[in-house]
Amino acid sequence: MAKYKRFKGTQDIFGDETKYWYYIEKIARDTFIKYGFKEIRTPIIEPTELFTRSVGETSDIVKKEMYTFEDKGKRSVTLRPEGTASVVRAYIENSMINLGSPIKLYYMGPMFRYEKPQAGRQRQFHQIGVEIFGTDTPISDAETIILADELLKAFGLKNYKIKINSIGCPKCRPKYREALKKYFKPHLENMCKDCQTRYDTNIMRLLDCKVDREISKDAPSILDYLCDECKSHFESVVKYLDEMGISYEIDPKIVRGLDYYSRTAFEIVHYGLGAQSAILGGGRYNSLVEELGGKETPAIGFALGVERIILALKSEEVEVENPEEIDVYVAYSGENTDIEALKLSRNLKKEGLRVFLNISDRSLRNQLKHANKMGATFVAIIGEKERDEETVSIKNMKTGEQFEVERYWVPQILKEKNTME
Ligand SMILES: [Zn+2]
Ligand SMILES: [Zn+2]
C-alpha cells in the first residue's frame, strides 16, 4: 500500500498513455503554427476575481467548482478553471495590441474544477485552446471553425459533428430573452432546480439543460430574433463554411450564458463518448476584454478537452505511435566492455536511434530480460568475444534472429533495419 495517494479526480499519466499526449500536443502545435498562431503560457494561479468577473458569479464553475484559497500574503488565489480568462488578462496586461492586430494565440495545460470525477472529466483536466483578438469579421469566425475541424481531422477523428449557432448581440438578445421568459414561465414549476434559478439569472441556459430537454424542445429559436447585423454576420459565416465544404449542423440550442459572448457559438460533439459528448467548444466574445478592463476588443476562440479527445481516439481505434519506444538496447558483459558499450550507444544515437544502454550491474541474461521488458526492437551485445574481434552481436527481439557484425557498421545497419521494422 502506498503511503501517499493522489487526490481523487487527478491522474498520473505514464507508460503507454503518454503516447496520446505527445500525439495530441504535437499535432495541435503543428496545426496552430500553420494557421499563424503563437503560443502563450500563463500562470496556473490567478486572482480569484479574474474568474468571478469573466466566468460569472452565477455560473456553476464560480459557485461550486473553483479551487480557491488564501495564500500567505492573504490574497485570494484560484487555480484556473478554464483558459480564456487568463489569456485575456495577459493580453491586456502585456499591451499585446501593440504586437499587431488581430493576434492569434494558443495555449495548452491543466485546468482545475472541483466536480464529480467521471470518464473524461477529472478535477485536474487538460485543455488546448486558441484565442484571436482584434477582429469581428465573419471570415475570422469561419476560419476558427475550419481550424477546429482540421485539427480533429489531423487527430484522425471522423465520428464527430460540428454544431453552430448565433447567440446574437446585446442589441438583439433582450427581445429574445423576453420571448424565452414568456415560453418557459408556465413550465417552470415542472423544471429542475437549476433551471428555476437560471430563469432569473441566465434564462438562455434553460435551453441546454439536459434534464428538461422535452420542455425546451419547442422553445423559440434565437435565429428568429437576430438583428440585421447579427443575421448577416451569421449568414456569411455559414456561407464560408459551405464554400469550404465543411459539414456542420445549425443548432439553436447551443448557448453561452454570459453577456460578453456574442454571435457565433459552436460545439463539436463526438458520438463515441456517450452523454459527455462535447469534445470542443468555442465562440465569439466581443466584450470580455472590456469587461476585464481593456479597450473594447472583439475576440473569438475555442478550447478542447484533452482527456475527451483521448477517449474519442480510443473509441475510433485511431492508431497512435509511441515516440518513446526503444530501438536498441545496448548490453555488455566482460572486462572493458562497458566503455565499448558507451561508445557504441553514442554512435547509435548519432544515427537518430533511441537507445537504452544497460546501466545496472547485472548478468547478460538479466540484461536481455530487461531489454524485453523495455520493449526494445534490437539488442546490441558486446561480450568478450565481440570486444576482442571489434564486432557486435545483434539480436532482433521480435524475430529472435541473431547475427554478428563488424562494430563500424552497426549504427548504419541498425538504422536501416529499424526503418524497415
Ligand atoms: Zn444582434
Ligand atoms: Zn433543467
Spell out which ligands are present: zinc ion
> Roughly what percent helix?
25-40%
How is the main sheet built? 8 strands, mixed
Span from first to last CA?
40 Å
Quote the beta fraction: 15-25%
Number of strands: 16
> What count of helical segments does DSSP give?
15
Sheet/helix structural class = alpha+beta
The CATH class assignment of the largest domain is Alpha Beta
Shape: elongated
By CATH, the topology of the largest domain is: BirA Bifunctional Protein, domain 2
Number of domains: 2
Name given to the CATH architecture of the largest domain: 2-Layer Sandwich
What would the average pLDDT be, to the nearest integer?
94
| CATH homologous superfamily classification of the largest domain | Bira Bifunctional Protein, Domain 2
Strand order of the largest sheet: 1-5-6-11-10-9-7-8
Give start-end ranges of low-pLDDT stretches: none
Organism: Marinitoga piezophila (strain DSM 14283 / JCM 11233 / KA3)
Binding site for L-histidine: 82-84, 113, 127, 131, 256, 260-261
Main location: cytoplasm
Protein name: Histidine--tRNA ligase
